[in-house]
Specification:
The chain is mostly helical. It is 52% helix and 3% strand. It contains 7 helices and 2 strands. The protein has a two-stranded antiparallel sheet. The longest helix is centred in the first third of the chain and has 18 residues.
């Protein structure tokens, strides 16, 4: 079992890596990465500083903020922090994808739910899917005849 200091060290190192991947400048003295992350996460800068200086593990609200700001599921943040384990937070089974019924194909919203797209990403999934469905010209398949788009 890891000591608290080891767990904080491991978690802080992981958070720093993710921050760098997401473009937060934490390596230059005046990069502003800690402040920007604190703002994006909606937490006090001191909470970010304490973590990155390996002084303390963040509380649940700070972890939720880190999750939002860094685009990482809360589940992953909690497991990485050592607060909970994979067994404590098993992945929810994806709902079965059912074939379109008599009412026609799945809606984009139904497809997002069936595919297990997280709520935080559903709006983007729906927007991208609609753009793909409509095509670059903004026409729907119903508006096309003989391979020509309607005027």
């Amino acid at each position: 079992m890891k000591s608290d200091a080891d767990q904080i060290e491991e978690f802080a190192t992981w958070v720093e890596e993710v921050m760098r991947e997401r473009g937060y400048d934490i390596d230059s003295p005046r990069g502003g990465g800690k402040t920007k992350l604190a703002e994006d996460a909606g937490v006090h800068r001191a909470a970010i500083t304490r973590l990155l200086q390996r002084q303390s593990m963040p509380d649940l609200e700070t972890m939720r903020g880190l999750s939002r700001a860094l685009g990482i599921p809360v589940r992953d943040v909690l497991i990485r922090s050592g607060k909970l384990t994979e067994e404590d937070l098993p992945h929810a089974p994806a709902p079965p994808i059912e074939a379109p019924g008599p009412g026609g194909p799945l809606s984009v919203e139904q497809a997002a739910a069936a595919l297990g797209i997280p709520e935080s990403l559903r709006a983007a999934f729906i927007q991208i899917t609609e753009q793909l469905r409509l095509g670059a010209g903004g026409t729907t398949p119903e508006a096309e005849t003989d391979g020509q788009a309607s005027p």
